Amino acid sequence: MEEIERVAIYRLHAQFCKTLSDANRLLIMAELVKGERSVSELVERLGLQQANVSKHLALMRDRGLVTMRREGASAYYSLSDARIFEAIKMLMQVQADQFERQHNLANRAE
Amino acid sequence: MEEIERVAIYRLHAQFCKTLSDANRLLIMAELVKGERSVSELVERLGLQQANVSKHLALMRDRGLVTMRREGASAYYSLSDARIFEAIKMLMQVQADQFERQHNLANRAE
DNA sequence: AGAATATATAACTATATGTTCATATATATC
DNA sequence: GATATATATGAACATATAGTTATATATTCT
Question: What's the pTM value of the predicted model, to 2 decimals?
Fold first, then answer.
């Protein structure tokens, strides 16, 4: 693989990862992993502004993390691929393990 | 789990994910997954500025993604947990699959 | 001690991003 | 067709972040 192509791929993937790097978007995904939700359901459950939720969803849709289904005036969103939340969980576990390790070290130091 | 705590956890995790959301940092991690590297090795292989690499490494170290070992004047970095790159690979695969799916749809439409 | 090498950091600039408010668009209901 | 409801979007602002240049710190070698 050429170096230029390689860099381009990582640039693209960085943008994909950037979509995971906002707390509100992670909360939205944690909600969607339970099942399909409409915008207003997300607004109500997460206590965010409607415009804010719509914007996050538009971004996530652009980048292929969620899909949308229209039903009347409502828009129902779902995760496009279960592995996305699998990866998130895996990373959260790494972080949790590190936190615990640090905690143990701190205790042993007392 | 309380809602406030839940949000705090996702905020922390978002910061962790944010560390994955830069192309140069992903390139650094792709290099480190092959094995320990010094700063100058990374600078040479990736063609980035030394100050830039040092900054990214400092950030990654702060957030627990890499560990550092000093040897003389050199600093050797490695990934702190193999699962980090596993998660990255998983997400890249999701993206690759989506790309392929879109490509197939485009071909079928011709 | 002084020079050379390796890494880190501070200051600065440019750019990207999240949030909010206001408004637009689309669908359903009367 | 007018009104209400659901969602999307544009403008504006504040903030965060990446990259660069210059410099500081630390270590090795002579």
Answer: 0.91
